[in-house]
Amino acid sequence: MAGLFVLRLGHRPARDKRITTHVCLVARAFGASGAYIAGVRDDSIRLTLEKIVGTWGGPFSVEHLPNPLGFIREWKRKGGKVVHLTMYGLPLRQRAREISSLGEDVLIVVGSEKVPREYFQVADYNVSVGPQPHSEVAALAILLDRLTNGAWEEREFEGAKARILPSEKGKAVQQLR
Amino acid sequence: MAGLFVLRLGHRPARDKRITTHVCLVARAFGASGAYIAGVRDDSIRLTLEKIVGTWGGPFSVEHLPNPLGFIREWKRKGGKVVHLTMYGLPLRQRAREISSLGEDVLIVVGSEKVPREYFQVADYNVSVGPQPHSEVAALAILLDRLTNGAWEEREFEGAKARILPSEKGKAVQQLR
């Protein structure tokens, strides 16, 4: 894959602020380059991620999308591929290798409550991380883990001001600049 | 491991309802037998999980804990082991095999905001799913994935009323009884 991006659908600030924030944090930590958020505009998510990037490094971008379906169609017209995470889709283990070996940018679409049928239609892959109800945050982490072959465990971020030194019992943070 | 259980610390109903619900749903979907929730009592989480178990199967239990530190000490006294998920801990890849091969019940402790120092001290393992800020929901999913060696992909639940039939484009649900 050339680059990995995440599109979060249907954000509602009151109800979804923390889940959408977790979606973006997971996208960054597990190897995506940026997130697009559709639904009600909520700049607080972008500001939170900018703070995280300021301290722990990047790059990672967050952008509001007024027209997600149009964006996806344009993404595909430019040659990008689209993976839609849904508990109704085909098992990840059946599709992970094929998706990993794509040469194009991959957009991972993550729903909130009910995802309209058009997204199932427009996606190149409807993929499930288990056929059970759980969490878009968890599903995204597992998908990115499989697509990057666990590369998040060693990932270095650019421009970090701080870095954690793993420890057995405490909290150790190294200031870098 | 004999059995896997999750302890969610510091639940605050207004702020954490959805994240704690996702923690419990992930615990169930990825192979834990139950969750304990500490913090402010909030029966809505248990009721949500009972509904999920009613439709999609179990077993999975949710219980409120008034005294989590006392509960952990008692857990250890009975021979159980404790894994605390924290971005400050030792990398999962260094500890996953050792934890998987434990013969005892394992309690996975998942914090919310600031976790008091006592939990770092009492844990047998402080483990990080990457040294980056992201999400306790994602960290739990990846830990359970590693500890169960991906067994969630094939897991069958007991007493399910419905089952998803994986599909390429749509939503197919089979009613079982």
What is the β-strand count of chain A?
A: 8
Oligomer: homodimer
Largest sheet of chain A: 6 strands, parallel
Proportion of helical residues of chain A: 25-40%
- Determine the strand fraction of chain A and express it as a percent band: 25-35%
Which stretches of chain A of 5+ consecutive residues score pLDDT under 50? none
Q: Residue-averaged pLDDT of chain A, rounded?
A: 97
Largest interface: A-B, 52 and 52 residues
Q: Nearest-angstrom radius of gyration of chain A?
A: 16 Å
The end-to-end span of chain A amounts to 33 Å
Question: What is the string of SSEs of chain A from the N terminus onward?
Answer: EHEHEHEHEHEHEE
Number of H/I helices of chain A: 6
Tell me the overall shape of chain A: globular
- With strands numbered from the N-terminus, the spatial order across the biggest sheet of chain A is 3-2-1-5-4-6
Structural class of chain A: alpha/beta
Task: Tell me what you see in this structure.
The structure is a homodimer of 177-residue chains. The first copy, chain A, is of the alpha/beta class and 177 residues long. The radius of gyration of chain A is 16 Å and the shape is globular. The relative contact order of chain A is 0.20. In chain A, helix 2 (43-56) links the parallel strand 2 (34-39) and strand 3. In chain A, 38% of the residues lie in helices and 25% in strands.
